[in-house]
User: Which sequence fits this backbone?
């Protein structure tokens, strides 16, 4: 019975935690009538659940650090003993710090009349093991071989009377570079100049086959003269194969004493360290110098998380990072909270100016230094420095030339470079990209990492098939090349599929890759651009992906993310059925999807799932509209509304719930409009509009809501006109046009904004036509026509823009006919018919297309018989 | 040397065998990995170490870094490896705590200031051992909850990773963690007042 009681305790604990605080006692009393002691136990657990503190809430390394602090012996006695001691001709004055291998002291040359101060580094007492001594000697040897103005100079070295090795070097009295720059409020340019000194030191070391391996702000001091000095070669490594094996062992030690925040991915992973590792660390330092932030967006992380961030997370662009607040890069509680203002102030500029300074070249330069793969970084500190110098001189930078799009785009445009070469180039890039997926499979790396790798594949395929495809699509005969690119990708994927067996991570990658390729197929070879059968290909690919997703989802029924992937994949296939005009199959699949969602919701109810169901209901309703089953469409929209309303009642402040209700009101209005219930449609749309405006008042920059305001205003204007409720029509139409004009102005490249504005002009023309103001109507319809032409030239594939365009032509034709200008009328109507016939050919079951085509044909038939097309006269 | 950086081949082979279903490999594996890590710990403690590096901290870094290396292992192996490492981390830290607790008992009760600026009460070793005892009792009541704590607290795993290792949903991990945490806090409190 013990287990029984535990289960009950557990159940009650979770149930009580979900109750509102003031209901909890009553709830428990009711639930524990038979066992009051159980009530007490749940209550005491809940009381403890609310307690904070204790070690259980601390990250493990904090606990470890506390353990260490407790046990570390106090070295102060030893230091006291050292002060005043004489070593060779030097007298120790004070301790400066504890370095990698030993302690650093300030010393004076006892025989020097000028009291010259130096730094003396000494192996710490008790650390005289062979290991430490050999490492210490290695540092000494490295330093002795270097003579550069930006590296702490080596003076002397030897062994004390009791056999302890030491060396003497230049004493640098200065601040760590970050602190120096901030306290002197150095501008970005001044910071860059200082960094060039550091690059030069690193480059010098590299030329002497030395990799520093621990470049960080604390190891770069800037003295009073503003000269940067690179210090602490304690874990530096000699790359030269001539040095004896003993030394190489020393530097290859597993102790990995580097500072994590500045380490390169290969250091973290224990892969070979090269000069590129120093370039990376330099990049981290420069990132912090320029932005005031760490590239990893973090302060308190477990080493594990930190390691992952270093190996996997792409850093934000520096120009983005400077807009952030709150993360101190150096983890020091004394540092003021980093805000954009503070960062700007330290650089003697405003946040906005700083952002503009960084964006573009500097973003690219830093991201290139911080690439995860060593071979993709700058080849040397010198190249890095060259780019920084070019930037300060306003010359083009290497980092930008290096990006794929820049290179391929510019290259192809400029040189019309031979297609065969282009295709080979594309294949090489693509092979590299698919190799990433293959590698991911072979290495069987953790899925999150695989996803990110896949993300790189996606990006590469993207740039390849969009940028590359765009560049070559106007070249004669490029179709074959494009097809080869896709075919090759497919071969790789099918091969992976054959070897994937049941490895879930690989299967997920594979499904995503098929989906990506499907998208490329459906877009790159669209019938409008001359390809044939591509949608069918895309369909096959999406179906392959769907099958994999289905398998994954059903073999892991508890993994919700797999279930969601499956659902998303169904939506893809449904969308392509819809695009191919197979509305019945699209509907069938959407209904299956809804059933699955409802089944999942019965088990794991969540707001996300409820919202998804709401969206599916609308999706089905939408299909019903296209099929012409308007009554049923209205039903689905009502169900979606009821669901959204229930969510909203449960959590009145949930934005998601508010959005669901807004969405449902809007769509219900549309469905009612198609069902010719215009007054009801107007009233639903009014509700949607009121809700959207209310949401916008609280969140004026929310584009989602703004789009609803735009489209609902337009819908309302239409419904009112259809319903014959003319009094408010003009004012709503004016508002709708004003909203869309603003959108177009703010984003000129956005085709959708142009199409939206065309649509409001169409609607206004239509409303005015219904209100018997034909000339006024005509001016709006003409405007709509030219805007749709513009939109079609920029986005030829949009069916919805095309059908709206045809509609605008039908109405302008009708108005022209009413105005007794049959030639002009026929011209518009024939254009409409042509567009619609193309659409029907693409989607033969689309009732809306068919009806509109019928309407165009009827209008042509209704024209006076003696009117022949213009040009016959 | 390269060989020095990769996990010793024996462990790798055993992990692979284990991943391929050879359950007996686990029995060989645990002591091996434990020994590897412990020798590391000994090295850290033998003062052949930099002055600024904290010892238990260094050890943890090392284990985490190993985890990163093991990310190239098969995923299933890795899940198991997470579990093994969490268990090892627990044992090592408790060993640590035990040895130093005996030294420090009756010592001063100053607060220790850490790099992060956090204050932790100095009886960390004692608290850690209390937690260990409470966790052992939790395992008797509800083994899965104790695993969740072991993986998350000692293993430093995220909710999602914990869910993967235990083959339950992240939701379940969150719920288990919530209740286990409350239960452990109470248990530790009651023990302490019993003892006091």
Assistant:
């Amino acid at each position: 019975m013990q287990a029984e009681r535990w289960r009950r305790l557990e159940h009650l604990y979770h149930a009580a935690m979900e109750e509102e605080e003031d209901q909890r006692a009553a709830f428990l009393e009711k639930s524990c009538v038979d066992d009051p002691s159980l009530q007490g136990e749940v209550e005491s657990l809940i009381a403890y659940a609310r307690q904070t503190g204790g070690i259980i809430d601390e990250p493990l390394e904090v606990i470890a650090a506390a353990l260490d602090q407790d046990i570390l012996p106090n070295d102060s006695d030893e230091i006291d003993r050292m002060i005043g001691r004489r070593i060779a001709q030097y007298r120790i004055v004070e301790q400066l710090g504890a370095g990698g291998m030993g302690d650093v002291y300030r010393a004076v040359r006892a025989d020097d009349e000028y009291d010259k101060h130096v730094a003396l580094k000494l192996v710490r007492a008790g650390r005289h093991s062979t290991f430490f001594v050999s490492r210490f000697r290695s540092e000494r040897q490295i330093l002795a071989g270097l003579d550069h103005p930006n590296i702490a100079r080596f003076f002397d070295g030897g062994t004390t009377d009791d056999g302890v090795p030491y060396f003497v070097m230049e004493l640098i009295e200065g601040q760590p570079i970050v602190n120096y720059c901030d306290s002197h409020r150095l501008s970005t340019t001044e910071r860059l100049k200082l960094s060039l000194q550091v690059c030069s030191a690193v480059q010098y070391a590299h030329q002497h086959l030395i990799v520093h391996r621990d470049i960080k702000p604390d190891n770069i001091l800037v003295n009073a003269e503003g000269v940067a000095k690179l210090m602490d070669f304690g874990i530096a490594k000699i790359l030269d194969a001539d040095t004896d094996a003993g030394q190489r062992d020393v530097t290859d030690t597993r102790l990995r004493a580097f500072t994590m925040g500045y380490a390169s991915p290969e250091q973290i992973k224990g892969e070979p360290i090269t000069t590129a590792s120093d370039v990376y660390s330099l990049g981290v330092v420069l990132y912090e110098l320029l932005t005031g932030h760490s590239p990893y967006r973090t302060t308190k992380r477990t080493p594990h998380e930190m390691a992952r961030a270093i190996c996997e997370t792409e850093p934000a662009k520096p120009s983005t990072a400077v807009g952030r607040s709150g993360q101190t890069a150096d983890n020091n509680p004394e540092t003021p909270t980093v805000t954009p203002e503070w960062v700007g102030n330290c650089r003697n500029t405003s946040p906005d100016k700083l952002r503009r300074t960084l964006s573009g070249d500097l973003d690219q330069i830093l991201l290139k230094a911080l690439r995860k793969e060593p071979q993709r970084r700058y080849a040397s500190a010198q190249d890095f420095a060259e780019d920084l110098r070019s930037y300060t001189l306003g010359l083009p930078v290497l980092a930008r030339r290096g990006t794929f799009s820049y290179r391929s785009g510019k290259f192809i445009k400029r040189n019309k470079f031979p297609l065969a070469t282009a295709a080979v180039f594309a294949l090489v890039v693509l092979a590299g990209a698919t190799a990433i997926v293959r590698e991911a499979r072979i290495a069987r790396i953790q899925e999150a990492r695989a996803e990110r790798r896949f993300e790189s594949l996606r990006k590469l395929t993207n740039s390849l098939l969009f940028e590359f495809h765009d560049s070559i699509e106007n070249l004669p005969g490029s179709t074959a090349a494009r097809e080869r690119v896709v075919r090759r990708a497919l071969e790789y994927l099918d091969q992976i599929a054959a070897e994937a067996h049941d490895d879930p991570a690989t299967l997920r990658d594979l499904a995503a890759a098929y989906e990506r390729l499907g998208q490329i197929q459906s877009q790159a070879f669209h019938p409008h651009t001359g390809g044939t059968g591509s949608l069918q290909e895309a369909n096959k690919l999406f179906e392959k992906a769907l099958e994999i997703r289905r398998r994954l989802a059903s073999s892991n029924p508890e993994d919700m993310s797999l279930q969601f992937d499956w659902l998303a994949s169904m939506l893809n296939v449904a969308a392509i059925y819809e695009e191919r005009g197979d509305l019945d199959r699209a509907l069938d699949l959407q209904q299956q999807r809804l059933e699955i969602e409802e089944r999942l919701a019965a088990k794991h109810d969540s707001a996300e799932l409820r919202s998804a169901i709401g969206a599916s209901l609308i999706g089905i309703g939408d299909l019903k509209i296209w099929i012409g089953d308007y009554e049923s469409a209205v039903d689905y929209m009502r169900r979606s509304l009821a669901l959204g309303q229930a969510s909203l009642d449960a959590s009145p402040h949930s934005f998601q719930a508010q959005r669901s209700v807004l969405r449902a009101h809007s769509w219900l209005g549309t469905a009612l409009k198609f069902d010719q219930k215009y007054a009801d449609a107007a009233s639903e749309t009014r509700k949607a509009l009121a809700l959207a405006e209310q949401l916008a008042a609280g969140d004026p920059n929310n584009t989602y809501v703004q789009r609803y305001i735009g489209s609902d205003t337009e819908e309302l204007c239409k419904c009112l006109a259809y319903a014959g409720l003319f009094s408010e029509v003009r004012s709503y139409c004016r508002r709708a046009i004003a909203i869309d004009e603003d959108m177009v102005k703010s984003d000129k490249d956005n085709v959708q904004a142009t199409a939206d504005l065309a649509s409001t002009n169409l609607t206004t023309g239509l409303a005015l036509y219904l209100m018997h103001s034909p000339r006024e109507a005509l001016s709006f319809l003409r405007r709509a026509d030219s805007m749709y032409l513009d939109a079609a030239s920029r986005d030829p594939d949009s069916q919805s823009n095309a059908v709206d365009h045809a509609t605008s032509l039908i109405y302008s034709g009708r108005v022209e006919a009413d105005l007794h200008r049959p030639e002009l009328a026929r011209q518009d109507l024939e254009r409409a018919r042509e567009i619609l016939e193309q659409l029907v050919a693409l989607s033969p079951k689309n009732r809306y297309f068919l009806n509109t085509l019928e309407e165009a044909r009827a209008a042509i038939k209704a024209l006076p018989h003696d009117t022949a097309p213009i040009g016959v006269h | 040397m390269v060989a020095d950086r990769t996990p010793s081949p024996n462990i790798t082979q055993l992990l692979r065998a284990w991943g391929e279903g050879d359950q007996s490999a686990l029995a060989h594996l645990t002591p091996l990995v434990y020994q590897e890590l412990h020798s590391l710990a000994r090295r850290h403690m033998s003062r052949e170490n930099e002055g600024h590096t904290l010892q238990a901290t260094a050890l943890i870094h090392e284990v985490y870094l190993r985890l990163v290396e093991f990310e190239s292992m098969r995923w299933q192996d890795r899940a198991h490896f997470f579990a093994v490492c969490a268990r090892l981390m627990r044992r090592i830290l408790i060993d640590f705590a035990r040895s130093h607790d005996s030294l420090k008992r009756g010592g001063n009760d100053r607060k220790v200031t850490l790099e992060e600026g956090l204050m932790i009460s100095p009886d960390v070793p004692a608290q850690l051992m209390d937690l260990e005892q409470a966790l052992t009792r939790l395992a008797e009541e509800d083994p899965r909850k104790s695993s969740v704590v072991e993986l998350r607290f000692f293993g430093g795993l995220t909710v999602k990773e914990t869910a993967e290792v235990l083959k339950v949903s992240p939701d379940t991990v969150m719920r288990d963690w919530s209740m286990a945490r409350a239960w452990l806090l109470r248990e530790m409190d009651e023990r302490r007042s019993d003892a006091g």
About this structure: The first helix of chain A runs from residue 2 to 18.
